Amino acid sequence: MIELTARIDAFVALGKRIQNLDAFEKEELFRRAGNKNNWFTPKSCETAFEGLSFMLQEGKLKKWLSAYSLEHVSDIKDVGVLMAGNIPAVGFHDMMTVLLSGHKLSAKLSSADEVLMKWLIGQLIEIEPDFEKLIETPEMLKGKDAYIATGSDNSARYFNYYFGKYPSVIRQNRTSIAVLDGSEGEVALKKLGIDILTYFGLGCRNVSKIFIQSEEELTRLLDALNSFSEEVSLHKFHNNYEYNKSIYLVNGEKHLDNGFLILKESEELVSPIAVVYYEIYDSEEKLKEKLGNLQTKIQCVVADPVKWEGAVSFGEAQFPEPWNYADGVDTLEFLTKL
Fold first, then answer.
1. Domain 175-302, CATH
2. Is the pTM of this model over 0.85?
């Protein structure tokens, strides 16, 4: 059994190791990750590692963990975690939560993200060798004491069928939205571009839809996002842009675009890659009622926190705190009750 202070120290040390990673080693690691998954560009991997460093600060970890009783875990459980691979190191928070809770981690890594996750696991074990007995990466997750699984709405039904009889956290599709009231300046709109386009829009914390009060705001937004053209120059992203644009043109569907990103009116929440949906709202009161009915599908709301309670500030959606749980489910509380 690794004492709680040693567990925390190991993750803090991992954060510092990520932050101070040798440039050559980082380049080689990101190259291997990109070869395995073309969506994982060096920029995307760099952003993910910045997010981990942001999260793995001693003060933050201690603040987060202080709300739970973790000092003495007498009954260590084997927790199976089925990890997603849509963005770099997306399974890290589940890994960290299981290990900090004092339980054993059996992680089924996504083939799309195994390079970075294996590296992170290896570094953690190098820092705290006792973790080696508490981490496995099996091909199959059978006979575990509890399960955490992340996937689509379809795969969630499959997970519930197989894992539902065990203590489990099953996550489904979520996305993020932004609310604009027309008072946002160019700086705020550029920051919104980070929330939209980081990881090419593939994460649940990426904004896939914006709510606006006037279509005039769309032109300002597209102009503000022009500076991201190089950042999303990946051919896979551009292919999606071209495909969706051709569909809208052939079907005569109204849309706006700036050469790499399309804005299209829709009541749907989840937009295709290289597309952001928008919807016009009449009043803040009606919008809050609408979003309240959609809360099980929304990961976070990006807006001015002064005007919108509980919102994430523009540009900060991709840098969650340790206590910002996916789907709003407190996985650490779940683990402490096993």
1. 3.40.309.10
2. yes
